[in-house]
Amino acid sequence: MKAPAAPVWALSFADLLILLLAFFVMLHAQSSHQAQIVQGIKQALGSSVSISSESHDIDPKAIFEVNEAVLKPQARASLQALGRRAALGGRSVRVESIGADRNTSRFDGWELAAARAAAVARAIQAGGLSEQRILISVPVMNGTAGRDGQRIAIDLVPHG
Fold first, then answer.
1. Which of 4, 5, 67, 75 lies at a C-alpha separation of 20 to 30 Å from 39?
2. What's the pLDDT tens digit per position in 50-93?
3. pTM of the prediction?
4. Which CATH class is domain 54-158?
């Protein structure tokens, strides 16, 4: 007896699933460039796609004491307000330190960058956002990183 033939569309459907899986693996692997990837997807899919996110790009010199990871009082209050807004809106927060400040005498550049990212996250948490909804990212710094100093990117994204 002859076995029934598989439907013609099954192979194409399997290919589609593998491509989708590869796409999402690539997205996850490139999480240090999440904002650029999301923007690219929005452009590729057209303006009908709505991904509600809020981004802030901060110069640490404006919110920290010189060569320290100590927030200025006004910056601490602003970050706490941001944490309250994220908690009330059911959002998560991603804090990313990009580059390093090489003009420091007390810390090395990487240590100061990591401490500042943690200080920002603690201030946001003090606003009422749970620790589980805050992601801190300090990407790998190679020899070219930090030429322009450090900056901190804060993204409020839908939780989930």
1. 75
2. 555 688 888 898 999 888 889 999 999 999 999 999 999 889 99
3. 0.65
4. alpha beta
Task: Please say whether the beta carbons of 56 and 97 come within 8 A.
Answer: no
**Non-local CB neighbours of 121 within 8 Å, separated by 6+ positions:** 93, 95, 134, 136
Average pLDDT in the chain: 81
Question: DSSP string spanning 87-155?
Answer: HHTTEEEEEEEES-----SSS-HHHHHHHHHHHHHHHHHHTT--GGGEEEE-----TTTTTT--EEEEE
Ordered strands of the 151-158 beta sheet? 54-58, 151-158, 91-98, 134-137
φ, ψ for residue 114, nearest 5 deg: -65, -40
Q: Where are the domains of the chain?
A: 10-45, 54-158
β-bridge mates for residue 64, sequence order:
71
Are 150 and 63 contacting, i.e. CB atoms less than 8 angstroms apart?
no
